[in-house]
Design goal:
27% helix, five-stranded mixed beta sheet, alpha+beta, 15% strand, globular
C-alpha cells in the first residue's frame, strides 16, 4: 500500500516502541489480523508498548499500513500509564498490557488516515513524533 522504507531489524538497541492501531479491522486479511492480535491490538485507537527487537519490528513491518509507531520517551510513557493504565481484574497489582486511547485532538494529519506519515498522513514510522500523537490521544 505505501512506498515508505521499512525499518531494518538490526536497528534495535533496547528502546521501547509505541504502536497505535489507526485503521479498523474490518475486511482484513487473516495473516494481518493474526499479527495484530499477537501485538495485542484488538481495537481501533489502542496502543501497546513493545521492546524494539527483530521479532517485533518484523510484525510491525507486516502491518505498517494499519498502525503508527515510533520510539516512546519517558515522560510520555509515564503520562500514558498514569492516565490510561487499567488494572487486571484477577490481580489488582498488575496492569493490562495495552492502552485504550481516544481519537486525537485536531485529527491525524493533513492527508488523513490512508497516507504514510512521510507523505502527510497518519500511518507508518513516526520516530519520536509518536509522542505528540499519543499526547493528543490521551
Amino acid at each position: 500500500m505505501s512506498s515508505e522504507k521499512t525499518v531494518k531489524p538490526s536497528e534495535g538497541n533496547g528502546e521501547m516502541l509505541a504502536v497505535v492501531l489507526i485503521r479498523g479491522l474490518i475486511d482484513l486479511r487473516y495473516d494481518m489480523l493474526t499479527t495484530l492480535k499477537m501485538l495485542r491490538l484488538h481495537k481501533k485507537h489502542s496502543c501497546v508498548i513493545v521492546p524494539k527487537n527483530a521479532v517485533n519490528l518484523g510484525m510491525i513491518n507486516k502491518v505498517k499500513d494499519f498502525v503508527a509507531w515510533g520510539e516512546i520517551d519517558g515522560p510520555t510513557l509515564k503520562m500514558l500509564i498514569e492516565k490510561r493504565a487499567e488494572k487486571s481484574p484477577r490481580d489488582p497489582k498488575k496492569t493490562k498490557p495495552f492502552f485504550r486511547l481516544s481519537p486525537p485532538r485536531k485529527g491525524f494529519g493533513r492527508r488523513g488516515l490512508k497516507g504514510s506519515f512521510k507523505q502527510g498522513g497518519a500511518l507508518g514510522y513516526r520516530g519520536d513524533k509518536i509522542n505528540d500523537l499519543i499526547t493528543r490521544m490521551l
